[in-house]
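Long-time lurker. I teach an intro course on protein structure, and each term I like to show students one example going from raw sequence to a predicted 3D structure in token notation. This year I'd like something fresh instead of my usual example. Would anyone be willing to generate the tokens for the chain below so I can use it in lecture? Attribution to the forum is fine with me.
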Amino acid sequence: MAATMSWGSCLCVHVVIFAWYVFTLSANCSLKSTERHPGAKTYGGRWKYLTFLNLVMQTVFFGLCVLIDIVHLLLPAKALRGRIPSLLVKLRDTIFTVLAFPVGTFVFSSFWSLYAYDRELVYPKFLDDIIPVWLNHALHTIIVPLLFVQMYIQNHKYGSRVRGILGLALFSALYLSWVLWVHHVAGIWVYPIMAKLSPMGLVLFFGAAALSMAPLYLLGEKFNRKIWGSAGPQKKKKK
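-- Reply from a regular --
Happy to contribute to a lecture. Here you go:
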């Protein structure tokens, strides 16, 4: 079972992770488009890529963690029993459990699974000349270790499984709708694999991708319980 860290220690960790994500986001947005990979110049820009959406979400999440740490360090104990700090912590836990962990681990697992099978389906070789190796790993690999760091240093209260999975399903449906809209308006597929699939293949692919999210939500819940025990946040010592 993990030991409870002080708010000051959590702040140090969160500042480092937040700075890393801000740096990564800046590096990603600084990439230049080419004729072979127009990227941000096509319809939807970078916002059509789940990897970029996840990067923005992780940056916002760890920025929120920094804010919460500062609030708990600056406010007196009496003020911490107020509504605003409690709402911030609840928001942090909701974002982490419903979106940050499952979407982050999905980006990692789906990317590297397709990459190992046939990289041309998700990350054509010519991208090596455009996207630095370190940035590729920052976008698709390092996200998972950082999520586990966060899970280890702070307990996150998991709410109703039904509501959590429904929230994740809503996010998945919105993103898939966005992908289809981009194809409808601009005639392009966000990822190369989609251009190679038949209509039925697309249905199966989208269905499998959406359904794989629920197990990742449950995986996060299992790991959180493994690290912090089954007692939940109510039985942990207050910081």
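Some talking points for your students: The longest helix spans residues 83-118. The chain has one domain: 7-235.
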